[in-house]
Write a structure and sequence with these properties.
The protein has 128 residues and is α/β, with parallel strands linked by helices. The protein has helices at residues 14-21, 68-79, 98-111, 120-127, and strands spanning 3-8, 39-45, 48-54, 83-87. A four-stranded mixed sheet has the order 2-3-1-4, with helices on both faces. It starts with a strand and ends with a helix.
């Protein structure tokens, strides 16, 4: 099943996107660290079932300093994706500076170069 993994800092809107894009109903609150596990939602595109996953937020810190929730996000990137979409809050109202968000994104791009970016199906979904 094609899978889109949403990753980013805490409180950037990953859970809200899962709610809008799919059948998933993750808890949405206006504070960080609401997501405490992997939440899935399903959607159909051209008659084909897809999965979108909501993941716990990542902080800009060394791998050895990350907690169990952040480890779930890393495991999702390693094992689930057809594509990974980094969700960014350019306003930094999420509580993580834009520079820290970009540093997290850069770390993930270097560590997992394959699944990042948008495949044609993900792009089509976003445009429809």
């Amino acid at each position: 099943v094609p899978t889109l993994v949403l990753v980013g800092a805490p409180n950037v809107g990953k859970s809200s996107l899962v709610r809008v894009l799919s059948s998933g109903v993750p808890d949405v609150q206006n504070y960080p660290f609401t997501t405490r596990g992997i939440k899935l939602g399903h959607f159909y595109l051209n008659g084909e079932r897809h999965v979108v996953t909501d993941t716990p937020g990542l902080l800009n810190r060394n791998e050895e300093d990350r907690n169990t929730m952040e480890a779930l996000t890393i495991a999702s990137i390693e094992h689930l994706p057809t594509s990974v979409m980094f969700v960014l809050d350019a306003t930094a109202l999420c509580g993580t500076t834009l520079s820290d968000q970009l540093a997290i994104r850069q770390e993930l791009l270097e560590r997992f170069p394959g699944p990042f970016g948008l495949n044609a199906k993900a792009l089509e979904l976003m445009l429809s």
